[in-house]
Write a structure and sequence with these properties.
single chain, 6-stranded antiparallel sheet, 20 strands, globular
């Protein structure tokens, strides 16, 4: 694509950013900042939106070297973020294009930074490809996802000692929340009419082996007997890995992001003391 093929669409002020000085897990609500980078630190303000990796957060409070946030706002899910990850403070730092695009359409974008009275030459800006995924139409993922009353992202076991996992969550509503930043831990909103939930079970290699569709409530129970059948766990198998995902669906379209919980399943002839496994964590994806 030649530089002459590009058309000017929108302008915006540069966002204030900061790298994290320490990594965070999906439950953390305080982000420690290395330094504020930008001409207007006042844009780091309580009540405004920020983005880190693919997660939208709401700034709740600003302190010396940190911000407190509500996690997993809009259509995103809380995720882990590593030391050095950039948090972008979005207060009035965005532009938009009035051109309409269809799902699956791709466009090439060039960002031209302007300093003083001079704008970067278009030939000096590398192209960035953007493919549209119908994000504005997709249902929001559920919020406040818990398993047995604790956050979803830690790896769980199913065995004779722990025979079931009880998933619970809160409804979300894309229409009611269009101009509201709602954190992950908030209670029910909506749901948007026609929204259901789908649970899928996968082997450790990613192969899907089971799914439950059309869930309209806010709970789902998965038993060790189910897991042994779906993952083909033998009587004496000690620790077979798998994972479970949860997503919202409306009109055949799924939420942009989904929850994932890793599981380990023992055979019926194995006691928990014989496992000898290493515990880990899993995250939203």
């Amino acid at each position: 694509m030649a530089n002459s093929d590009y058309k000017f669409r929108a302008s915006a002020t540069l966002a204030t950013v900061s790298p994290l000085s320490a990594g965070v897990n999906p439950a953390a609500t305080r982000f420690m900042l290395q330094r504020i980078i930008g001409n207007d630190p006042s844009t780091v303000a309580a009540g405004s939106a920020a983005m880190i990796d693919n997660e939208v957060v709401k700034i709740v409070a600003v302190g010396a070297g940190y911000v407190d946030v509500d996690r997993g706002c809009a259509d995103t899910i809380p995720a882990p973020h590593s030391t050095g990850a950039l948090i972008w403070f979005l207060h009035q730092s965005f532009g938009y294009d009035t051109q309409e695009y269809v799902n699956g359409e791709s466009v090439a974008v060039k960002i031209l930074v302007k300093s003083g009275a001079k704008r970067m030459a278009i030939e000096n800006s590398p192209p960035q490809d953007l493919t549209f995924v119908g994000r504005a139409f997709r249902p929001y993922p559920p919020g406040n996802v818990l398993i047995d009353g604790t956050p979803w992202f830690s790896r769980r076991t199913l065995s004779e000692a722990h025979t079931e996992l009880v998933f619970t969550w809160a409804h979300r509503d894309r229409l009611l929340q269009a101009d509201i930043l709602t954190g992950h831990q908030a209670g029910n909103i909506g749901p948007e009419p026609g929204t259901t939930y789908t649970v899928r079970v996968h082997k450790g290699d990613g192969t899907q082996v089971h799914q439950v569709v059309g869930i309209t409530g806010t709970t789902f129970t998965y038993t060790v007997a189910n897991a042994r059948t779906h993952l083909a766990v033998g009587t004496n198998d000690s620790a077979i890995p798998g994972y479970i995902t949860l997503t919202s669906v409306r009109g055949g379209v799924e939420s942009l992001q989904r929850y994932r919980t890793d599981i380990l399943v023992s055979g019926s002839g194995i006691s928990l003391k014989r496992w000898g496994v290493s515990w880990g964590t899993s995250w939203a994806q």
